[in-house]
Amino acid sequence: MKEDLLDYYCNAFIEKLAGSNTSIRNFTIKFDRLFNLDTGTGVYIFKRLIALKRIMVDMNKKIDLNDSTQSIKIVQQSLPERVGVL
């Protein structure tokens, strides 16, 4: 997957995540279906967003896809970080 397309899906994931109240597993399955992506792409994006520190989860416990999406904190980025400046 190209980097710009991956960025688009990452942004869409965060946008859809805001206000969601389901399990992470169900959210990623619905995300894959909504965008007609291969099974597991939503989980990949979830992990990528954690690695990029765009979302935060409690790293003191095992990541459980059955946890609620409410347990995920969306990290607000400054404008320069969003547009890739600097």
Features:
single chain; about 90 residues; mainly alpha; two-stranded antiparallel ribbon; 2 strands
How would you sum up this structure, described in words?
The protein is mainly α. 49% of the residues lie in helices and 5% in strands. It has helices at residues 3-17, 24-34, 41-51, 79-83; strands spanning 55-56, 73-74. A two-stranded antiparallel sheet has the order 1-2. Helix 1 (3-17) crosses helix 3 (41-51) and helix 2 packs across helix 3. The longest helix has 15 residues, at 3-17. The protein is globular and about 30 Å long. The chain starts with a helix and ends with a helix. The model has no long low-confidence stretch (mean pLDDT 90).
Average pLDDT works out at: 90
Tell the overall outline. globular
* Beta strands, count: 2
Could you give the order of the helices and strands? HHHEEH
- Tally of contiguous helical segments: 4
> Numbering strands along the chain, what is their spatial order in the largest sheet?
1-2
How is the main sheet built?
2 strands, antiparallel
Task: Please identify the structural class as seen in this structure.
Answer: mainly alpha
Beta percentage is under 5%
Instruction: Bin the helical content.
Output: 40-55%
Low-confidence stretches: none
Ends distance: 25 Å
Radius of gyration: 13 Å
